[in-house]
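Notes from the 1:1 (GR / supervisor)

We went over the backlog. Supervisor wanted to see one worked example end to end before approving the batch request, so GR pasted a single chain during the call. The sequence is below; no edits were made to it. Supervisor asked that the structure be written out right there so they could see what the output format looks like.
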Amino acid sequence: MFSSKFTGIGRYVYEFVKNLNGINAESGYPHELVLFFNEPEYKEYETTKNEKKVLVNARHYSFKEQFLLPPKIKKEKVDIMFFPHFNVPILYRKPFVVTIHDLILSIFPGQKMVRWYHRLAYQMTIKNAVKKAKKVIAVSEHTKDDIIRFLKVPKEKIEIIYSGVGDEFKVIENLDDLAPTLKKYNIKKEFLLYTGVWRNHKNLTRLIEAFSIIRDKHGLDLELVITGKPDPHYPEVKQEIKKYNLKQEVICTGLVEENELVDLYNAADLYIFPSLYEGFGMPPLEAMKCGTPVVASKISSIPEICGKNAVYFDPYDAKDIANKILGLYKDAKKKAELIESGIEHATKFSWKKMAEETLRIIRDAL
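Structure output shown during the call:
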C-alpha cells in the first residue's frame, strides 16, 4: 500500500519503509527487508542494501490480492510479515503483525460499500486479521478501544503506536513564497482550510452550513478552501455549496501537490477539522506544525491527538461549529497561543519513533 501520492495509509507505509531502512542502516543492516509492491511503485522504488522488492500487482481488497499475495510471500521465505492495513489474505498462515488504523468501515460504511457481500468480505477480512495476528498495532487509544469493542480482541494483544508528522510540514517565514499556490487556486481573501477526502464521516456538509452562517449572519468576508478529489459517491458536498449560494466563497481545489498543501496550511487563517470519526487524524497536526491554529471536532480520537492545542466544537451542530470558528477568528491572543503550543505539540509525533516501536513489536512477535 506504499504510495507516492500520500493518502493516509500510503504515507504511513512510505514513512515506515523510509525510517525502517534508516534504522537498519544505523544498526549495520541486521535485517533483510522484502517489500511487496504494485505498479507503478514497484518500478519507481529504488532498493537499498539488504532490501528486495517483489511485484504483486493485485488491487487492494480484491480477490486477486487474497489469492496472489500468500504464495508470493511464501516464495520469499519471510520470518515474519508486517501488514500495514487490515487487508491480510485470509489464507495466509505464517506469523504476522497488523496495524489497524480505524474502524471507519464498521461505523461509517458510507456510500461505496453498499452491497451485502462487500460488507461481509470486510468483516471476514478484518476479523481474520486481528484474530491470527501475533500483535495488533492501533494508532490511538481510541482505535484500541474500538478494536476491543467491535472486534473482541483482548487488550493485551494490542499495542498503541502513534503515527508521525513529516519534516516537510513546517512554518514558511517568507509569505511571498506562498503567492504562486494562492494564485493557482484563485484564493484572494483570508480563508479557512479543510484537507482530506470527501466522505460522509468527514462531515463536510455541516462545515459548509457553518460557513454559510459565518457569512450570512455575521458578515465575515472569508473564503473556505476544500482540498481533495471530488467523489461522485458524495455529491452532497457540491449540492450544499449550491444550496447556500457559496460558489464564489468556497474553493474546491481538487487534489493538490504536497508542496502546495504545505503552502495552504501556512496561508490559512484557521484549519477546520469537522470529522465525525478518525482513527488518528493527521491533518490537524500537519496544520499545527505549519503554524496554523486548529478548530476541530471534540469526538473520536481527535482530542486525544490534538490535546489542549485546538479549539473544539460539537460536529453535529453547525451553529456550534460556526461559533467556535468565529470565536477563535476574532481572538488574536488565543490564536497566538495555539500557534506556539501547536508547533511544539506536533513535533512530538515522529515517524522515526513510530518505525522504531513498530520494529520492536515485529521482532518480539518472532
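Supervisor's comment: The two ends are 23 Å apart (CA to CA).
Batch request approved.
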